[in-house]
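[agent] plan:
  1. take the single chain provided in the ticket
  2. run structure prediction with default settings
  3. attach structure tokens to the ticket
  4. add a short note for the reviewer (M.T.)
[agent] executing step 1
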Amino acid sequence: MSDKREIKDIEIEDIGMEDTEIKDAVPKKAVNKSSDISGMFKDTAILLIIKLVAGLLLALVYQITKEPIATQKEKAKQEACKEVFADAASFEGVEFTQPDTAAWIEAGYAQESIDEIMAAKDGSGNVLGYVITVTTKEGYGGDIKFSIGIRQDGLVNGISILEISETAGLGMRAEEVLKPQFADKNIEQFEYSKSGAVSENQVDAISGATITTNAVVNGVNAGLYYFQTELKGGSGNE
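[agent] step 2 finished; step 3 output follows
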């Protein structure tokens, strides 16, 4: 009889222990889950702080470098203008309208755009001509951007290549081969020749770089066309 009572007591004790273990286990899981959520919020907060600090630092760097960069760009612009209009005392931006799309395309300049126009002035403020910045998309390696100095009578002082990424040893020779051929020419429209220029309006093509030659010639012609139709005689909106 006593043996049975002992067995029953043991069973009751065992069951009681199991219940306790189960009860103890539940809060531990809840604590762990709560800890995980807290950790996630902490990590998120840290990331947000890092992003905020990085953003503030970038904004600070931008504010510090904005003015020097703008000054450098303006200096480069003025130097490019001076290169194609050496006798000008100053250069001022001109408000201009983009050419009529239909007429522009019909003239053959669908791949060219007018980016900027600067009025070249003498010491008394008289307009000597214009510096027209043109971008052509017809380059072999990408866009080619350059400025053209054109006097009031249509004389091309010269061009200044601003951006070019053509093939080394071929299209990149535009600076040495093509650029000099536009200087001091009073031509309504240029054309290029593969066999050598025989007239004033012809430009010797770069050997092995006809695409680059065509792009530059078309770009110069686009600038001339805009001058002849919009600016000649000082009709620009200054």
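[agent] step 4 note for reviewer: Residues 2-84 form the longest helix (83 residues).
[agent] ticket updated
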